[in-house]
Amino acid sequence: MINAADLPDTIPVFPLPGALMLPRARLPLHIFEPRYLAMIEDCMKTKHRLIGMIQPRETPAAGNRPAEKRLQAIGCAGRLTGFSETEDGRYMITLSGASRFRVREEVQGFTPYRRCLVDWAPFVRDLGPTEDDPAFRRGEFMDLLGRYFTQMNLSTDWDSLKEAEPELLINSLSMLCPFSPEDKQALLEAPTLDTRRETLVTLIEFALRGGADEEMMQ
Fold first, then answer.
1. What are 102-143's pLDDT values in tens digits?
2. How are beta strands 56-59 and 68-71 bridged, if at all?
3. Are 150 and 120 in the same domain?
4. Residue 89: left if φ>0, alpha if ψ -120 to 50, beta else—which one?
5. What is the three-class DSSP state of 108?
6. What confidence tens digit (pLDDT) does each residue in 141-166 have?
C-alpha cells in the first residue's frame, strides 16, 4: 500500500495510446524503446517506483506550427511490482495501479523520457479500500458481456469473470476491451466504480448497436 505522504510531486510518464491503468489493477507491459528502458532503470532506483500511464493526444498542425503530441490532463500511476529481462535486453514489467493524477505541467529536463509535475489530491479515494457497486446486477451484465464478446470474437475465462468482485471485474474489462483511446479516457476519468460501470455498459451497448452497420460500410 502507498500512503498519500509517499506520493512524489514529479513522476515519469509513459504516453501510450489505448493503454489504461486503474487503481488496484495490474497492467503488464513490454518495454523495448531505449528511452523507456532508461525510465524503468531510473524508476527502480526510487523509493516509490511509480510510473504514470497517460494517453497522448495529438494537436493538429496549423500554419507553420507542426503537429504536437500533448498529454491528456488525467492519468494513473502504477507501482513497478514485477520485472524480468529478456536475453536481448527488453524488459517485461507489471505495474500495480496506485492512484490517478492530474497533470499540472510537464517538467523539462535531461531525461530521454517525459516527466510531469502532478496533483494527486482530486483522487484521494484511489488510495482507499476496494470500491463496491451496490447497484451492480451481475446477471444482466454478464448477458450483455456475452453478446459483446461473441460479436467481437473475443474469448475469456467465464468462470473467473462470474466469481470476480465487482471492482476487479469492471476495471479489468475497462482495461482489456478494445475501446478507442477516447473511450478508455472516459473510463479512467469516471469518478466512482458505479459511473465507470455505467460508462462501460454504454460503450458495450453502442458497439452492439453499431457493429453490424460498421461492417457493412467497410
1. 999 999 888 999 999 999 999 999 999 999 999 999 999 999
2. antiparallel
3. no
4. left
5. coil
6. 999 999 999 999 988 888 888 889 99
Query: Is residue 208 domain-shared with residue 104, that is, in the same domain?
Result: no
Number of domains in the chain: 2
- Tell me the C-alpha to C-alpha distance, in Å, between residue 72 and each of 47, 55, 150, 193, 195: 26, 6, 32, 21, 20
Domain with residue 44: its CATH number is 2.30.130.40
Minimal CA–CA distance to 27: which of 72, 92, 74? 92
Q: Where are the beta strands (DSSP E) in the chain?
A: 10-15, 26-31, 50-54, 56-59, 68-71, 74-85, 91-107, 114-119
Report the candidate in 24, 71, 40, 43 with the shortest Cα–Cα distance to residue 175.
24
Q: How many CB atoms lie within 10 A of CB 211?
A: 13
Query: Within 13 Å, how many C-alpha atoms sit on residue 117's CB side?
Result: 6
> At 89, is the secondary structure helix, strand, or coil?
coil
Query: Which is nearest to 79 in space by CA: 27, 123, 130?
Result: 27
Give the three cell numbers for residue 164. 470476480
State the helix-helix crossing angle for 193-217 and 166-176, rounded to 10 degrees.
30
